[in-house]
User: Fold this.
Amino acid sequence: MIRLFAAVVVGMFAVPASAALRTGTDAPLFTTQAALAGKEFTYTLAEELKNGPVVIFFYPKAFTRGCTIEAQNFAEKSEEFKALGATVIGISNDSIAVLSKFSTSACQSKFPVASDEGGKIIKAYESALLFSFANRTSFVIAPNGKVVFTYTSLSPDGHVPNTLEAVKKWRAASTPLKD
Assistant:
């Protein structure tokens, strides 16, 4: 009986409730509480987009194996994203207290993580798995607010290389040629 219940629960998490936002759509703007290096602050996507493209990655739960791996992978490549003018933010339904700790450990104080306890942002990005848990989905949002790349996979492995490549392609396409 316990094995059957476990299989049903795993099966529910393996299939997203809906597909993620598509390339070319407007990214929903949001303001929420976030943490960077253990310090809490108010994060506003509209303000961050004024500085360049934003990589948003949704993940199911802080301090779980896959989510920790994904956050560490983004932390390792954070300087490459910055060199391309992009910022990174992770979003989950964890509390801001939990994320304050996660921002220093797994994220290595390299980028903020934001709290979406009610799941409103997760749902707006069509990245819900079950209830208010996020599917592992990454987006690249251009400064004009358009989604230029979407990647969904429960495996944490492809998110960083795919979003980094998407930012590089966006940067190449948006940089004027010099005479």
About this structure: Residues 28 and 124 are 6 Å apart (CA to CA). The radius of gyration is 16 Å. The longest strand covers residues 31-36.
